[in-house]
Design a protein that fits this description.
Layout (H helix, E strand, L loop, with lengths): L2 H10 L8 H18 L4 H14 L8 H13 L2 H12 L6 H5 L5
Helix pairs in contact: 2-5, 3-4
C-alpha cells in the first residue's frame, strides 16, 4: 500500500490512526475466524439465533425452557470452544498444542 493511500484511508475512519497495525491485523484475523464459525449455521439458524438473543435480552431466564434448549443447540453448533482456541492460536507467538486449540478429546 502506498503511503499516500494509507494516509487517506486512515483519515477517513475515526480513531484508526491510533491503532497499531498489529492490532488491526489481529482484529481482522479474529473477525474472519468468527465468520467461519458463524457460517457453520444455516441462514435460517443464524436468524433464529439472533431472534432468541433479542428475546432473551442477554438473560437466559427471559427465554422459555424450549427456547433455552434451542439457543444452547445453536451455540453448540457454532463451536465456541474451537473459536476461542483458534483465536488464541492465531494470536500466540508460538504454536499452541492441539488439545488447547480444539479442546480435550471426549469419549
Amino acid at each position: 500500500m502506498r503511503p499516500r493511500t494509507k494516509t487517506r484511508l486512515l483519515s477517513r475512519v475515526a480513531g484508526l490512526k491510533r491503532l497499531p497495525l498489529f492490532k488491526l491485523l489481529a482484529i481482522g484475523e479474529i473477525a474472519l475466524l468468527g465468520w467461519r464459525h458463524a457460517a457453520r449455521l444455516t441462514p435460517q439458524e443464524r436468524m433464529r439465533l439472533l431472534q432468541l438473543l433479542r428475546i432473551g435480552r442477554g438473560r437466559r431466564r427471559n427465554l422459555k425452557p424450549d427456547e433455552r434448549q434451542e439457543l444452547a443447540a445453536l451455540v453448540a453448533k457454532a463451536e465456541p470452544r474451537r473459536f476461542v482456541g483458534a483465536a488464541a492460536d492465531r494470536l500466540s507467538p508460538v504454536p499452541l498444542p492441539r488439545r488447547v486449540v480444539e479442546g480435550s478429546a471426549r469419549r
